Amino acid sequence: MSSELDAVRVERGLTTRMLADAMNMSPAMVNRMMTGRRVPDPVEIGGLCAVLDVPPERRLHLYGLARESEKKDWLIHTTPSDSDPNGTVRALWSLADAIDTYGVTGGPRVLGNAHVSLGTTRARHVGDAVWTHYLPTRALDRSGGELDPQTKRLVRLARPGGVRVIPDGVAAPFRHPVQVLRFRHFAPVVILDLDHTVVILENEHAEHYVAPLRAAMGSALSADVSQGLVARLWGGGG
């Protein structure tokens, strides 16, 4: 919600102070709303939408987001053609500063969600986010040749050290793909890919997954060794 409002503010050419003056609020208060540290109430959303000339259909969407702002977990029912039909995961990826993913059989299915429509949210950090994918050694041996072309391409184009291998003997932290998105001003958000359902968790609900992944990350092979294994098994073709 804050990302969309802030994107419209920039599009309209208003500074935070100018918007604060129009809203009869302090610049600090408006800044907190634009950065997501404070959820505007319905009256404030109405005022922001009026000042920023937000289209009617987007106003309804923003009111809906405000109503659900206290939720700590979300369920997304995927479709055969889209694991993120409402763009929620794509928006989160676009705002993250660092992303750690874990896959039991290969690359994460929703890596492509890092590409977000600028029409609905301002992708401030997509180009700067540090993405690291962790996977067990058995995933290299079992599924390397079966990865889809997009995932193989993303793996090959990853930054040095962008793929880290968890060696045999280290207990697998999860039985399903997990993504941990990290933000400058907020607690990590966890995304679980459960085939036909995507679960998004926040705060204490997320910590049950953040801690095991952190432990597995500490046991991963070095960036150089991991890169060598990946290059040997995934480096060609696709």
TrEMBL record:
Residues 5-59 form the HTH cro/C1-type domain. This is HTH cro/C1-type domain-containing protein. Transmembrane segments: none annotated. The lineage of its organism: Bacteria, Bacillati, Actinomycetota, Actinomycetes, Pseudonocardiales. Gene3D superfamilies: lambda repressor-like DNA-binding domains. InterPro entries: Cro/C1-type_HTH, Lambda_DNA-bd_dom_sf. PROSITE patterns: HTH_CROC1. GO terms for molecular function: DNA binding. Pfam families: HTH_31.
